[in-house]
Specification:
alpha/beta, 2 domains, two-stranded parallel ribbon, 15 helices, 7 strands, elongated
Length: 382
């Protein structure tokens, strides 16, 4: 292993050492650290993909694309005087802190052929970020995410709020993108959907984050990273929303989509229902973002003082089983008119929650009337 260059990254306040090392040496390190970065997605199938071709390319002596590693460990010397032995010691001092930021799938491919004797003659390049913090890791992973299997926007959203993932969510079952599971009960929520809702609450906007906004939001996250009160706000928001969903579930007598013979003609729909039960309606991004944006706007307009105020109103909500049929009918009608279906659905839920919890609205605490008004306002704005 040898250092070929060293550059100070002023954006993330870390030093990047470019190294050359044997592929065999890297494989030995990779085996021990490949699971260290919980923000990384799982291995993708290599059958018929570029990674299956990469195996043979590596054995044929093709230059292996650079791997990017990071460690929060600090150097004992300044950057200029750090030598090869110092880097080796730094890497081996605490392998639990060494993470793969870019090149995980390539590393899996390499480990598949690590015992081939041809590899003993080959080297690869490694970029090693030293003394990098969690914010720097997130930022660098987002900006490096341009490979053959880029992270979905949902995974990037989860990454942005990863520091909050270990909060206490009570009975809620958190599903991450890497879990590859679906919402199957009233207790199940996708973590990225919850983050969507919380971000809409912070920004008073039902529109979810895009890639550019993710990078901009890192500035906000960095400024609040050490604020315990802010970290507590996210699980608090989640629990308040979860309480609402449970209330609606009970008040609707655990509603499920009825047989078509039981649906009145004026509530029949042409397409697939938006939600065939309560959690299919409310345990998703569209309703969460609408809720977050609506409550935030009500607070801004001084219609309510704080988010906790609406919890006291849950028991006063009036809802009938047919209201859920009406909600599905309205969303079906909106879908026919909308240019961007997801955005229009978020707008509908924002209007729904604003009417439902605004003390000055005629639809206050009345689910059916709130749906009807939200329908009119949404159709007028798409």
């Amino acid at each position: 292993m040898k250092i070929t260059s060293r550059i100070r990254d002023k954006k993330i306040n870390a030093t990047c050492f470019q190294l050359e090392m044997s592929i065999v040496d890297y494989a030995k390190i990779a085996e021990k650290v490949i699971d260290n970065n919980k923000l990384q997605r799982r291995r993708v199938s290599s059958n018929g993909s570029v990674y299956s071709l990469l195996k043979q390319d590596i054995l044929d002596g093709c230059i292996f694309p650079p791997i990017v590693l990071a460690t929060s460990n600090m150097l004992k010397k300044d950057d200029v005087h750090t030598n090869n032995e110092d880097i080796v010691e730094l890497i081996n001092t605490d392998l639990e802190k060494l993470k793969i930021l870019d090149g995980l799938q390539r590393t899996y491919t390499l480990l598949d052929i690590k015992d081939d004797p041809k590899l003993e003659d080959y080297t690869l390049r490694v970029d090693l970020y030293v003394n990098i913090n969690d914010i720097g890791i997130m930022y660098r992973m987002l900006t490096l995410n341009t490979g053959q299997t880029p992270m979905s926007l949902r995974q990037q959203v989860e990454m942005l709020y990863s520091n909050y993932a270990d909060s206490n969510f009570g009975d809620i079952n958190i599903i991450r993108q890497v879990d590859d599971e679906s919402v199957k009960s009233i207790n199940d929520f996708k973590y990225s959907d919850l983050v969507d809702g919380y971000n809409s609450y912070l920004e008073s906007n039902e529109t979810p984050l895009d890639r550019y906004s993710l990078l901009e939001m890192i500035k906000v996250i960095e400024s609040i990273a050490n604020a315990e009160v802010t970290k507590a706000d996210f699980p608090h928001f989640v629990k308040i929303y979860y309480s609402f969903v449970n209330t609606i579930n009970k008040k609707s007598n655990f509603w499920v989509w009825p047989d078509k013979t039981e649906i009145p003609d004026h509530l029949t729909i042409e397409g697939t229902p938006f939600g065939k039960n309560i959690y299919r309606v409310f345990n998703r991004s569209q309703s969460l973002t609408g809720f977050g944006a609506a409550i935030s706007q009500l607070i801004t307009n001084k219609s309510i003082k704080k988010i906790e105020d609406i919890v006291e109103l849950y028991d006063e909500l009036t809802i009938d089983n047919s209201d859920l049929l009406l909600l599905n009918k309205v969303i079906d009608d909106i879908k026919k008119e909308a240019k961007k279906i997801g955005d229009s659905q978020r707008l509908f839920f924002k209007f729904l929650f604003r009417s439902l919890f605004d003390p000055e609205s005629e639809e206050y605490l009345n689910f059916k009337k709130s749906i009807e008004r939200a329908s009119r306002r949404t159709l007028a704005n798409i």
